[in-house]
Each structure stands twice: as structure tokens, then as C-alpha cells.
Design brief:
434 residues; mainly alpha
């Protein structure tokens, strides 16, 4: 097989095959995030072509973001049962089918079904949980750095491709932009099918940093366990105040990033006379700074108290959002916002994953973080709809941005209520369903 041959070839050159898996995962999360974020630049074209209101379009986007998060815990269970490669291939094909079918849509219910439900389910199977699962399985050393890289790919995919999507939409129509995303998704499918493997033992290697090849754990329980396992983990984790603090702060994270900025920033700038391509370029600038900010966050999460990292991340993000209405939306003002906000776009993920792993155990970290990430996307869905509602009812986005900034400051204080690591927080292995 290609993977086994390449793994042996790289091993002779002292390169671990885990880095190939990380590269494929990076690509997958990059194009999936582009599929999640690109509709943010298509609000205005859809309004012009179909006459839909912002609140109606935002409803489809909020459903997509909500399903994107709610599928996280079950995606981890699916990966444990069916294998990472199979789940990711199915997810990418589902996203592609939803986007491709939308080229012929004419009614708002079709937008909700395709971009909301179908794309929401597909992207949910390749959410940040994918990065956490791959990093945990393939890396013992440098796990925080690897997780930072994968997390950066998610945010970068949402932001960097937006100028290209906006330009294609302006010159050739929004359908051309969607077709480009579909082509990128098919490239990712081929890479996953050929190169992705579920565990290091599949190519006869130990995890990076380990000395011995770990045996593949047996798959226990039937298909019913795919539903019961995440629910049992939620039941156990919900007894800990740590879980609810991480859930609440990640709710704020989602509300203040892809729910608000990722969905409505281009339309907000349009209200102040900035063209879609220019506004999307500001988002791309955020993506550039986020790439380094999130990787740096992963590096710092291996070395510093993750509670204080989150305090500074949420605090600085809140101040950035409160500053935005006073930026006068000039090139200088928006550039300053993009730099500070971009460094912090999704830097909260590595410290949050590290805290979840420390408190609840390595084996269940993926499932617990899946539920925490569901809180992230619940916040994103709320902000996506809330922003659309504010613009429709009050003809301005600014109340939504001010609320998001205040929530970030509250989250910064809330995370300090976490105590230092206590082993007693680790949750036991739930009994498999028969």
C-alpha cells in the first residue's frame, strides 16, 4: 500500500509518518473550513439574486454552525468505530454533494436544507475534533504544537480563501466560488484515501515520542454505542464544574469568532462602504496572523498555565471587538483590528484541549472536547442568527459586536475560576453498549 511504502521510506530517513498524516489532516481541515466560512462572503450576492433577507440567510448559516458543533462528540465515536479515514472520506463527499446541489437552488428552504443541514452534518464530522483525535493518536511529544498547527488550518481556511471567493463571486457569480470549493474538497478526498491511516500501528510505527508500537484497542459495543458512548461521557463530565466553565467560555469563543466575524464581517464592512473583496482581504489578514498566533498558542500551552493563557486570549479579544466600532473602518483602523484580533482568532483551542485532557483523561479527551466544542458552535449559531436579526431589525450590526466584546471579558474572568489540575476529575471508561 502507498501509506506503508511511504512510511518505510520516510523511516529510513528518520522522518515519522505522523507528519504525513498531519499534512493530510491539515489539508482536510483547511478545505472544510473554507466550505464553512465561504458563505460569509455570499450573503450580499444571495440577497441581490433571490431577494432574501439577512435574517433568513443567517438562519441557514446558524443551523450549519449548530450541527457543525453538535456532531463533534459523535464524530469522535464514529472515528473510533469506523476509522478516521472512512469517516473523513464520507464527510468530504457529503459536503461536496451539498454544495454542488446548491448550484441549482431557487428557494430559501433549499438553502437551509443544503447549506444548513447537509453541509452542517458533513463539516461536523471533520470539526476540530478531527485534529484533536489525530494529534492524540499520532503524537505523544509535541502534541500541543501539532494541535496548534491543525487548529490554525481550520481558522486559516475560513479566512484566507474569502478574498478569492469574494473576487470570483463579483466577477463570475457566487456559483463559480462554490464550484472551486467543490474541486478543493475532491482533492482532499483523494489525499485522505491514499495517505491517511487511523493509527501509527497501521503502518507499524509507535506514536511520535514513544518507543514501542501500541496495540490497536478492540472495537467494543455495537452501533448503538455510537450514540450511547458520547451521552455517557457527557453525563459523567457534566458533574464537573470544570466542564461547564470550559463549555461556557468556548460558547463565547464561538459567538465572537466564526459566528459573528466569520459570518457577518463582510456585510458589516459593506454597510460602511467597504467592498466585499476589500473586507474579505481584511479577513485574510486575520487568517495570516491567526496561523502564527495559534501555532504559538500550541507551543505556549505545552509550557505555561493554560488558564492564564485563556484569560489573556479572551480579554484581548473582547477589547478588540469593543474597539471595532471606533476604528472608523479605515484601512489603518481595520488593519490594527485584524492584527490583534487575528492573533487571537482561535488560539483558545490548544489550551482548552490541554485542560480537557488533563482534567478528564487522555482516552476520553476527544469525546469530552467534542461536547465542549458543541458549546463553541452553539455560541456561533447564536451569534450568526443574532447578527442577522440585529441588521434586519435595527439596520446595524454594532449591538451584536458590543455584546460579543462584553461576553469575552466575562469569559476571561470565568476561566480563572478553574482550579489547578486535579486527577480526581478524570472520568471513568463508560461500559460499552451491548
Amino acid at each position: 500500500m502507498i501509506a506503508s511504502t511511504l512510511a518505510a521510506l520516510l523511516a529510513r530517513r528518520h522522518v515519522h509518518y505522523g507528519w504525513v498524516v498531519i499534512a493530510v489532516t491539515f489539508l482536510t481541515m483547511l478545505v472544510t473550513a473554507a466550505a464553512v466560512g465561504a458563505p460569509g462572503v455570499l450573503i450580499v450576492p444571495l440577497e441581490k439574486e433571490f431577494g432574501w433577507e439577512t435574517e433568513q440567510i443567517a438562519t441557514a448559516f446558524s443551523i450549519r454552525l449548530l450541527l457543525f458543533g453538535l456532531m463533534g462528540p459523535f464524530a469522535a465515536a464514529f472515528m473510533n468505530y469506523f476509522g478516521v479515514r472512512r469517516v473523513v472520506c464520507v464527510a468530504l463527499m457529503l459536503i461536496t454533494a451539498g454544495l454542488f446541489a446548491s448550484l441549482a437552488m431557487t428557494s430559501i428552504w433549499q438553502l437551509i436544507l443544503l447549506w444548513g443541514v447537509v453541509v452542517g452534518f458533513g463539516t461536523g464530522l471533520t470539526a476540530v475534533v478531527l485534529g484533536a483525535t489525530v494529534a492524540t493518536r499520532w503524537f505523544t511529544e509535541r502534541r500541543g504544537l501539532v494541535l496548534g498547527m491543525l487548529t490554525a488550518s481550520s481558522a486559516t481556511g475560513q479566512l484566507v480563501f474569502m478574498p478569492l471567493m469574494a473576487s470570483l463571486s463579483d466577477h463570475y457569480g457566487w456559483r463559480t466560488a462554490i464550484m472551486l470549493i467543490c474541486a478543493m474538497l475532491l482533492v482532499a478526498v483523494a489525499a485522505v484515501f491514499l495517505l491517511m491511516r487511523d493509527r501509527p500501528s497501521d503502518v507499524g510505527l509507535p506514536a511520535y515520542g514513544d518507543k514501542t508500537v501500541a496495540t490497536t484497542p478492540p472495537v467494543t459495543g455495537g452501533l448503538l454505542s455510537l450514540i450511547t458512548m458520547p451521552l455517557l461521557v457527557l453525563k459523567e463530565a457534566s458533574r464537573s464544574s470544570t466542564f461547564w466553565v470550559l463549555f461556557a467560555t468556548f460558547y463565547v469563543c464561538g459567538a465572537s469568532t466564526n459566528g459573528l466575524i466569520g459570518t457577518h464581517f463582510v456585510a458589516l464592512c459593506g454597510d460602511y462602504g467597504l467592498a466585499a473583496v476589500g473586507a474579505a482581504s481584511v479577513l485574510a489578514m486575520m487568517g495570516f496572523f491567526d496561523f502564527f498566533g495559534t501555532i504559538g498558542s500550541g507551543w505556549l500551552s505545552d509550557r505555561l498555565d493554560n488558564r492564564w493563557l485563556l484569560f489573556w486570549y479572551y480579554g484581548l479579544r473582547g477589547l478588540s471587538l469593543l474597539y471595532l466600532p471606533y476604528s472608523d473602518f479605515s484601512f489603518y483602523g481595520l488593519s490594527l483590528f485584524a492584527m490583534f484580533y487575528g492573533l487571537d482568532w482561535i488560539a483558545t483551542v490548544p489550551p482548552t484541549v490541554k485542560l480537557a485532557t488533563d482534567r478528564f483523561g487522555r482516552e476520553k479527551a476527544g469525546l469530552v472536547f467534542g461536547w465542549i466544542f458543541a458549546g463553541h458552535q452553539l455560541g456561533a449559531a447564536s451569534a450568526a442568527y443574532g447578527g442577522g436579526f440585529a441588521r434586519t431589525e435595527y439596520a446595524t450590526y454594532l449591538p451584536a459586536f458590543l455584546v460579543a466584546g462584553i461576553l469575552c471579558l466575562i469569559a476571561a474572568l470565568l476561566v480563572l475560576t478553574l482550579s489547578k489540575h486535579r486527577k480526581s476529575d478524570a472520568i471513568p471508561q463508560p461500559a460499552p453498549a451491548s
